[in-house]
């Protein structure tokens, strides 16, 4: 009985965390499945949304996850994901760093970065 209750509690915590947390898309999700979820790709140089051709080039060129960032009041969205191999970043509105982990470090008064694995850089809705 105790094992069942413990297992149910653990499952609740996992479901609760996944329902309220967001991470940057993995390389596999992007390259193999083209799953951007709610993230929008922008050109790092001019901040403009990528065209379909530019999106295809981005997917061909990315080689790894670099970092997650949060910049309050960024017009594209405060939550940002950066990848190696491309001058592109992904952005999303209505997210903030989940400070329940120690992975986020302040960069300035209104910005933070996470240099951990993309699965460890959690954003929360709000």
Report what the structure shows:
The protein is an alpha+beta fold. It has one domain. The chain is 27% helix and 32% strand. The protein is built from 3 helices and 9 strands. The chain has helices spanning 2-20, 27-31, 52-61, and strands at residues 21-22, 40-43, 64-71, 79-84, 88-92, 95-97, 104-108, 111-114, 123-125. The strands form 2 sheets. Strands 2-5-4-3-8-7 form a 6-stranded antiparallel β-sheet, with helices on one face. The chain has a 3-stranded antiparallel β-sheet with strand order 1-9-6. Strand 4 and strand 5 form a beta hairpin. It is globular, with a radius of gyration of 16 Å. The termini are far apart. 27% of the residues are buried. The model is unreliable at 2-18 (pLDDT under 50).
What labels describe this entry?
single chain, 126 residues, alpha+beta, six-stranded antiparallel β-sheet, three-stranded antiparallel β-sheet, globular, disordered N terminus
Strand arrangement within the widest β-sheet reads 2-5-4-3-8-7
Largest sheet: 6 strands, antiparallel
* Arithmetic mean of pLDDT: 87
Helix content: 25-40%
Q: End-to-end span in angstroms?
A: 37 Å
Judged by helices, strands and strand pairing, the structural class is: alpha+beta
- The ordered H/E elements are HEHEHEEEEEEE
Q: Strand percentage, roughly? A: 25-35%
Overall, the morphology is: globular
Count of spatially separate domains:
1
Radius of gyration: 16 Å
Number of helices: 3
Low-confidence stretches: 2-18
List how many beta strands DSSP finds.
Answer: 9
């Amino acid at each position: 009985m105790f094992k069942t209750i413990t297992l149910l509690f653990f499952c609740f915590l996992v479901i609760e965390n996944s329902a309220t947390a967001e991470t940057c898309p993995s390389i596999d999700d992007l390259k193999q499945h083209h799953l951007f979820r709610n993230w929008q790709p922008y050109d790092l140089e001019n901040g403009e949304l990528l065209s379909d051709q530019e999106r295809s080039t981005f997917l061909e060129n990315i080689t790894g996850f670099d970092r997650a960032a949060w910049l309050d009041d960024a017009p594209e969205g405060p939550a940002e994901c950066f990848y190696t191999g491309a001058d592109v970043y992904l952005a999303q509105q209505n997210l903030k760093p989940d400070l329940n982990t120690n992975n986020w470090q302040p960069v300035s008064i209104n910005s933070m970065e996470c240099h951990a694995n993309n699965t460890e850089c959690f954003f929360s809705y709000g």
